Amino acid sequence: MCNLYRINASLDAMRSAVGQIGFDLGVEAAIGNFPGINALYPDQDGVVIHAVGGGAQLSSMRWGFPPAGQGKSPITNIRNLASPWWRRVNRDYLLEPEFRCLVPFTRFAEPIAGRRNAWFAVPRQEVAFFAGVWRPWQGERLAPVPGKARRQRTPDDWRLYAFLTCEPNAVVSPIHPKAMPVILAEPDDCRAWLAGGEASLALQRPLANEGLDLVERDP
To answer: How far is C-alpha 159 from the geometric centre of its chain's CA atoms?
Structure first.
């Protein structure tokens, strides 16, 4: 499962990529001049692209859906789409276009021995997208507290996101044989995902081997 990725692309690069899908990209005021994120972990704030009116918007959201059952860890990766958790509890968030999103990334990591990571990227693309979903939620998550060095659990209204995973392709499987993120590399696939609906779940599939490179290993 992917629990670490980077998004170092500029706003101009993200606007260009979204333009190829057929949308003008608006930017949520709170994001400002997006500086990029060199290491994004679960339960931290990332950015997603979702439908707003007839266009698309880049918004800040927290990575990780509410835990299932009695679990305590946020759900960052979505794999079993047939489970009651997704088909019943979160059905609307999974299928309705209002809650579909694209999660921009430049590289994602899978763990290797010794607490090191291997990093993967889509070649010749300054920014690529995971197939994501988001939802509003009210509850406690970690948040900065004035005067405190560490974040503390704080009740609030949140917007949460997660993204789909699938069987790994031949590039990822030697490093992580269980799964890889669902990557939407073609504009048509991005449009189909944002449109929502049952048929779009067929996009839960590995990216073609030639569409992904192993670009770095942590020393």
So the answer is: 13
